[in-house]
Amino acid sequence: MADIPLQPRISETTPSAGLATRLAVRAGVGVGLVGVLWMVGLQLTGNNGFGPKQILAQLLVPLVAVANEWWLRQQLKPEKPGLGRSLKVGVLTVLIAAVLSGLGVLGLAYGAGEPALARNRAEVAEIVRVQQRENPKVKRTEAQIRQQEENLAEMTMPQGLAISTFGRVLLIGLVLAVPGGIFFRE
Fold it and tell me: Which domain holds residue 165?
């Protein structure tokens, strides 16, 4: 009978073993915090931190995800990252950034308080009214107008803002991260 060691073999780890995860966490946290700081900066300077200007920081997410996929490819040369690792780094970067952005909006909403949310609600309502005036062909019933006002009030609550920010960052990020991951797989 052969001698079987009782201790499990310790597998040798390569430096690239957790590289995709490390890159994704660093970049996702970094770009997520940049987005949160942008929204806080907007709020502190008297702008609407919940309004359309926050998209400027959210557009960084897909760019950072694609750059991260490229950086993974550069780090692994001459080895190829493959589709799994390339998609993993891009999608995980976007997911982490989206979670941080959503939590940042939630924290900002509770921190800024009801006056800031009321100002945001008024701005969004004005945008909706202007869009309705620009399109006079669409006739709305009184029930449709009330339903739209209720949806607007629900969307501009802290939870609604956080969910919409999370979804927007995730969607914008995945639009470029998935094709980028496919492109940089080899």
Answer: 20-112+159-183
